[in-house]
Write a structure and sequence with these properties.
Elements (H helix, E strand, L loop, with lengths): L1 H10 L5 H49 L4 H15 L6 H6 L2 E5 L4 E11 L9 H5 L3 E11 L4 E9 L8 H15 L11 E8 L3 E2 L4 H4 L12 E2 L5 E2 L4 E2 L38 E4 L2 H9 L9 H12 L21 E9 L6 E3 L3 E15 L2 E14 L8 E3 L9 H15 L3 E7 L6 H9 L5 E4 L2 H21 L1
Parallel strand pairs: 4-5, 4-11, 11-16, 16-17
Antiparallel strand pairs: 1-2, 2-3, 5-10, 6-7, 8-9, 12-15, 13-14
Helix pairs in contact: 2-3, 6-8, 6-12, 9-10, 10-11
Length: 481
């Protein structure tokens, strides 16, 4: 009997499908859960990738315009993560596992991070982990973005001659726009990668506290004026020093002590130099620049080449010891520096300076006796001739007879300086403020400007637009390289 029942039970298969079905359902749930967990992970990775891309782009933009420490870079990436992953459960992990690499040689920033998500479905019933894998899925990604590794040195060379008197408000606004674009108000000064010099010119350039030095004040040659003009080549009888169209240092002559007065820069105060328009050497202090721009006043004649001279000197490493350390220009061969000059005029050059080596003076007198009114009298006549001037007595004098033609001495010198500046690696922008695009001033600016960098402005609004466009072009140049 018992044996028959057991045999019957063994032949009965009606309930065997239930445990099989239950096992299959569990497997399907785990597989479906795995799909959900994997989908969550893929989605999380995409969000992390977006956050990393955004952070890398943001930091690259900041690095293009600012000098940042590693701590500042890390903080900005973290801030970007928090903004883009605010509600994500893996945010803290992503920040904890954050890393970045700055390649100054290549100009790249690489941001990397990774995180993980717990597998809520794969481990159903405690079986998923054993059957299909880990209890969490890890994910990570990185982004590499180029940034501009360049710093910028810009000379803003502006015409403050008497003819600008009615347009100084426009010039001040246009110059301030350049500062606002390249040195934004919300930027920390210590982080700025742009330095600007302000070089207002008329008959000469008001060099302020630096004038005495370049005119030989250490040797008693300087005067009470802050107005500085130009210099000539010097021949000491054994060697010709060809320095007129160069940025050779103001104290280049070392063969005697004291050096000859003729080796230093000249004084243009007798013919008008704007006393309120003072040169500012390279600085990233926007307040100093805007204050100096606000003080610009028109005065004097036009010697555009003196503006070119001192604009160049403000960018020249040969004058690093003249300016404060924070204003010292970088070397020409510094691959991380871009040098620019914006040169503007509204008129024609009409003044140039020379250092005469001879002068017409009384050298003798000739006397004779003549019979007059009943008695002998002595009559003397002064004799004048050109004579050499002792070096210690050499004085600069203005040559007011250059005229305003394109081939006059002042304009020839102006263009020569522009050519030398460009040959030194300075990119020049020329702006003519006037309606006659064929005038001497316009043609000088066309010649001075580097290829594609000439602008004409025939109105106050046009002047502001030209300066703004140039500043934006400079910005795009150093951001894109």
């Amino acid at each position: 009997m018992i044996k028959a029942l057991i045999s019957k039970f063994n032949r009965n298969h009606d309930g065997s499908i239930l445990p099989i079905f239950a096992g299959m359902v569990l497997v399907l749930v785990v597989i479906g859960g795995a799909a959900i967990d994997i989908s969550r992970t893929v989605n999380a990775r995409e969000k992390l990738a977006y956050a990393i891309d955004a952070a890398a782009l943001s930091v690259a933009t900041d690095l293009s315009t600012s000098a940042l420490s590693n701590a500042q870079i890390k903080q900005r990436i973290e801030n970007s993560f928090r903004a883009n992953l605010a509600d994500e459960e893996f945010l803290d992990q992503a920040i904890e596992n954050l890393s970045f690499v700055i390649d100054d040689d290549e100009g790249t920033v690489t941001v990397t991070s990774f995180a993980g998500l717990n597998n809520y479905f794969v481990n159903v019933g405690g079986l998923g982990k054993d059957m299909l894998g880990p209890d969490a899925f890890n994910f990570g990604t990185n982004a590499r973005v180029n940034y501009s590794r360049f710093d910028v040195e810009l000379a803003l060379i502006v015409d403050v001659t008497g003819s600008m008197r009615g347009d100084m408000a426009a010039l001040r606004e246009a110059s301030t726009d350049v500062v606002n674009i390249l040195l934004p108000e919300d930027q920390d000064q210590s982080e700025a990668k742009v330095r600007i010099s302000l070089v207002p010119y008329s008959t000469g350039v008001n060099l302020g506290v630096y004038a005495d030095v370049v005119k030989g004040g250490a040797y008693g040659f300087a005067d009470s004026s802050d107005c500085v003009t130009e210099r000539q080549d010097y021949d000491d009888g054994t060697e010709l020093y060809d320095v007129k169209y160069t940025d050779s240092a103001y104290n280049y002559y070392t063969n005697s002590n004291p050096p000859p007065k003729a080796t230093f820069y000249g004084d243009g105060s007798n013919d008008g130099c704007s006393s309120d328009s003072v040169m500012i050497p390279l600085t990233n202090d926007r307040d100093e620049l805007t204050d100096a721009i606000d003080d610009l006043e028109a005065e004097g004649w036009t010697a555009g080449h003196t503006g070119a001279i001192w604009g160049w000197n403000s960018l020249s490493p040969n004058y690093a010891n003249l300016w404060p350390a924070a204003s010292a220009p970088a070397a020409y061969n510094d691959d991380n520096i871009l040098k620019f000059a914006i040169m503007m005029t509204d008129g024609n050059n009409n003044r140039a300076f020379d250092l005469p080596l001879t002068e017409y003076k009384k050298v003798d007198e000739e006397c004779s006796r003549v019979w007059r009114r009943g008695r002998w009298r002595t009559r003397c006549t002064d004799v004048y001739d050109w004579v050499d001037i002792p070096e210690i007595d050499l004085e600069w004098e203005v040559n007011s007879d250059t005229g305003e033609g394109y081939s006059n001495e002042a304009s020839v010198r102006h263009r020569a300086y522009c050519t030398a500046m460009k040959d030194a690696g300075i990119e020049v922008f020329g702006v003519y403020f006037g309606s006659n695009n064929s005038s001497t001033g316009a043609r000088n600016m066309q010649n001075c400007a580097s290829s594609g960098n000439y602008y004409q402005a025939s109105s106050s609004e046009g002047l502001k637009q030209a300066f703004s466009n140039i500043a934006k072009k400079i910005q795009s140049i150093y951001l894109s390289r």
